[in-house]
Amino acid sequence: MRPEQWETFKKAARGERLDNIPMALIIDSPWIPGYVGVKHMDFYLNPQVWFESHLKIHQEFPDIIFVPGWWMEYGMAAEPSALGAKIKFWEDNTPSEYHNLFRIEDVDQIHKYEVEADAFMAMTLHRIRMQKQQVFDAGYIMPMVTARGPMCTAGFVRNTSDLMLDLVDQPEAVHKLLDLTTRLIIDWLKAQQKAIGDCVEGLFILDDIVGFVNEDHYLEFCHPYLKRINDAFPDDWVKLYHNDADVVACMDHLPEAGFNVLNWGKQTDITEVKDRIGDEMTLMGNVNPLEVAVRGTPAEVHAATMDVLNKSEGERIILSVGGGVSPDMPRENIQAMLGALNEYNAKRNAG
Fold it and tell me: Cβ(161)–Cβ(107) under 8 Å?
């Protein structure tokens, strides 16, 4: 994103009233290669393809804030690969992760990690150092560091279905695993901050697996670890949490965990989320990302966008889809969202 866009995003995250509601979209390799017409392997392994793909999108949509902005990632491979998970790459799709912790009681046997040298973490950090100046020279910044959350990373390493059973059957071992993944994530975020430099002022945690547990399990197995991550970084940073699974069990507790922006899924209407935490967090959403944003007509996208904006009442909202941009979301539907937002902002300012 451009520096002025980051200033807008920061103000929105802090709950400051803006003349115009901004639009921000989470974009990464599930969507970018298909949209710009390149192979995933080229996007991951050819530095110039990666740069030109991002640049094309930023130039095509100059009025949209892209989050986290120039994201250097290999799908979801970085975090689990550092703990020994097997990663498979495909020509036309994001990588697949295969768990390696077949018995939860073997958690102590996982090799010690080293984020600067391990698997796709090391590759990502090298690519950041190699390409960041090219991004800066084009007039953009990289203001956020990004990681999968503790539960998500644990699920990749253990297998999510087995992890859900372990919560009940072997909770002590689960806490050991979550302590490990939390330490890994903190170190990983700090390594990214060091590689990028002084422009970093925010963090972005993605953890959909939190949406698979009830409130009691959230408070025991998720909340303390999310809070540890946020507490490891400055209080004035923007702290964005993404969970496009169910957020009903966790949303009341996310402000206390330290987050100030929530990007959530289509399962929960913005009215309910606003009623429960709208004064404590900025809501980033919540147009249906698949049935509407990908499969809908521009007219349907326009109507859905207006519905979200009207329900938000124009307060503490960043317009987005309910999650990241899904594969195959077309240009005309992105433009339909932006067009609806411009209409809403014009009416809001005229009133």
Answer: no
Phi, psi for 114 (deg, rounded to 5): -145, 100
- The whole-angstrom separation of Cα 125 and Cα 215 is 36
Can you spell out the DSSP letters for 185-209? HHHHHHHHHHHH-TT--EEEEE-GG
| Angstrom distance (rounded) from CA 190 to CA 237 | 13
Joined together, the tokens standing for residue 232 give 């490891």
- Nearest Cα residue to 211 out of 222, 220, 203: 222
CATH number of 29's domain: 3.20.20.210
Under 8 Å between Cβ of 66 and 143: no
β-pair partners for 192: none
Gap between the Cα atoms of 347 and 351, Å rounded:
6
Residue 184 CA, distance from chain mean position: 17
What is the full per-residue pLDDT of the chain (351 aa) written as tens digits? 999 999 999 999 999 999 999 999 999 999 999 999 999 999 999 999 999 999 999 999 999 999 998 999 999 999 999 999 999 999 999 999 999 999 999 999 999 999 999 999 999 999 999 999 999 999 999 999 999 999 999 999 999 999 999 999 999 999 999 999 999 999 999 999 999 999 999 999 999 999 999 999 999 999 999 999 999 999 999 999 999 999 999 999 999 999 999 999 999 999 999 999 978 999 999 999 999 999 999 999 999 999 999 999 999 999 999 999 999 999 999 999 999 999 999 999 997
CA distance 5 to 112: 39
Domain coverage including residue 94: 3-350
CA dihedral for 314, 315, 319, 320, sign (positive or negative): negative
Vertex 140: Cα angle to 143 and 54 (nearest 5)? 100
Q: How many domains does the chain contain in total?
A: 1
